[in-house]
Amino acid sequence: MTSRGEPDPAEAHCLADFERIAASVLPPEVWDYLAGGSGAESTLDANRRALDRVCVVPRVLRDVAECSTATTLLGRPVRMPVAVAPVAYQRLAHPEGEAATARAAAAAGVPFLVSTLSSVPVEELTALGGSVWFQLYWQRDPARARDLVRRAEDAGCEALVLTVDVPWMGRRLRDVRNRFALPEGVRAVHLAEGADAHERSAGRSAVAVHTGRAFSPSVTWSTLAELRRGTRLPLVLKGVLDPEDAVRAAAEGVDAVVVSNHGGRQLDGAPPGVEVLAEVVRGVPDGCEVLLDSGVRSGTDVLRALALGARGVLVGRPAVWGLAAAGAAGAARVLDLLAAELHDALGLSGCAGVSEARDLRTLRLP
Q1: Which residue, among 130, 131, 132, has the nearest Cα to 122 in the 3D structure?
Q2: Angle, nearest 10°, between helix axes 221-230 and 142-155?
Q3: What pLDDT is attached to residue 9?
Q4: Residues 80-110: pLDDT tens digits?
Q5: Phi and psi for 274 in degrees, rounded to 5?
Q6: What does the angle CA 75 – CA 78 – CA 79 come to, to the nearest 5 degrees?
């Protein structure tokens, strides 16, 4: 604690410490928006339980004196197999919003995924010098979606990430009960309209109303094919759980799939991504990378994903916990902790590098 009795991010030694700090400093309805899931939040809770059930069998008598977390994602070097997941409206957590988190990701040497619902323009984020991927929600007006693609390309984004599990937002009861609406000064800067996101009324989430009017519920394989033809960027499909969908996506020319249940915020009752990860990895060709999203909270979780065949992981909420706690310095501390934990997990499992982790055996606890 600081001399004023406030939480001290320097005293945070794991990502869960930052979760507690963020919960203590954010307004309750903002915390609920960031932390909550859909429905009864059964999938939100299952994500963590499923990861905890995965045991990695370590190897011994291996030289790990030169242990490294470095690898590549989409063919580009990264300091660890992690990217910062797209999280909307980050100015809810800190006045600098996505700019602070993007700086932290750049310092950590990992990609930052900017959301369609970012509260900071993509051009400001790519200007910071790190690796930026643009996450796209397809719009009801296809021309607007195409404009976003061109804008991301022109801004210097290194990949395009199409999220396909949100025909509309899941029913997030915390937001409904709170009548959640965006405060003045926070908006989705990549979307032309948005007044309805600020209009609080009983029995609804204003953010869900706003995105329901903007997002297309008619995204299909033909949409993906059009997007693949229309962009020169590497294309990632986020929100895949069925291995058959992953196989078809690879056949349609995507460069990577993200196995994800949207952090438990879409279909309540969907399986944790880690439960289907290995099957997805087995199904797609070697040229299609597989990333895991939803519930990753430690370097051990990253090791678990690697041992199950993932190329890497996305980490969303923890970066925003750090942002809420101490801006860019807090988000950077979260990523530094994650890197230190992964280094520890690799070495203790007998792996001198990331590629060796993919050869480790895993067991499932009952």
Answers
A1: 132
A2: 40
A3: 76
A4: 999 999 999 999 999 999 999 999 999 999 9
A5: -65, -25
A6: 155
d(CA 5, CA 279) in angstroms, rounded, equals 48
- Token output for 169: 């937002």
CB 118, CB 90: distance < 8 Å: yes
Which residue among the candidates 190, 210, 262, 343 is catalytic per the annotation? Answer: 262
Model confidence pLDDT, tens digit, residues 310-347: 999 999 999 999 999 999 999 999 999 999 999 999 99
**Packed helices 28-35 and 317-348: angle between N→C axes, nearest 10 degrees:** 50
* Contact indicator for 260, 239 with CB cutoff of 8 Å: yes
Is 262 in the active site? yes
pLDDT over threshold 90, residue 1: no
Q: DSSP code of 139?
A: B
| Partners of 291 in beta bridges | 258, 312
Contacts of 189 by beta carbon, 8 Å cutoff, 6+ apart: 118, 119, 120, 121
CA dihedral 74, 156, 236, 344 (to 10 degrees): 50
Compute φ and ψ for 227, nearest 5 degrees: -65, -40
Half-sphere exposure of 221 (CA within 13 A, CB side): 10
Q: Share the mean pLDDT of the chain.
A: 96
In this structure, the strands spanning 76-78 and 71-73 are antiparallel
d(CA 328, CA 282): 38
Dist CA 361 CA 180 (whole Å): 44
Tokens of 121: 């323009």
Question: Long-range contacts made by residues 223-229, C-beta under 8 angstroms, separation at least 24?
Answer: 223/138, 224/162, 224/164, 224/249, 224/252, 224/254, 225/252, 227/136, 227/149, 227/160, 227/162, 228/252, 228/253, 228/254
Alpha carbons 278 and 273: distance in angstroms, whole number: 10
